[in-house]
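Holo prediction. Input below; ligand is zinc ion.
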Amino acid sequence: MGLLECASGNSLWRGYDYFKENKVSKIVPVDDGIYEASVLGSGTEFYKVTIDIPHPRRSKCNCPHADGKRLICKHMVAVYFTVYPEEAERIYREAMEYEVAEEKHQEEIADKLPTLIHKMKKTDLESAILQLLYEGPEWQYHKFIREYLDNF
Ligand SMILES: [Zn+2]
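Structure of the complex:
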């Protein structure tokens, strides 16, 4: 697995922000695929970061999140993106494209919803409504009773 694949979604995007904010300095290649750098933290402190691209889990950072652990922190991601800025832009572009496609998909579902509900069998609709009322938030349950079952 590559370094980015080892990072959590949170570390990936926080690392992207750090890269865009130019928080990485003093990058030195020390070996094949191994870089040392200094990364400005959220305060005034600088963290000493080593990324090992062939062996991501050997990467090091002395921040409290990653120190002594084998995980990929946002500082490592920021260094990686600074070494490969075109990777950062590609990943950002892909995420945006995914988000736009996902939004479009949700809109399509919302447009089709009335037709889909219209086609449902009455017994299926009844159990769907009961399930929504029992499993949904309490206000929804009370609202339904107020609006539709007032005669009871
Ligand atoms: Zn770190």
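The CA atoms of residues 102 and 147 lie 33 Å apart. That is the main takeaway for now.
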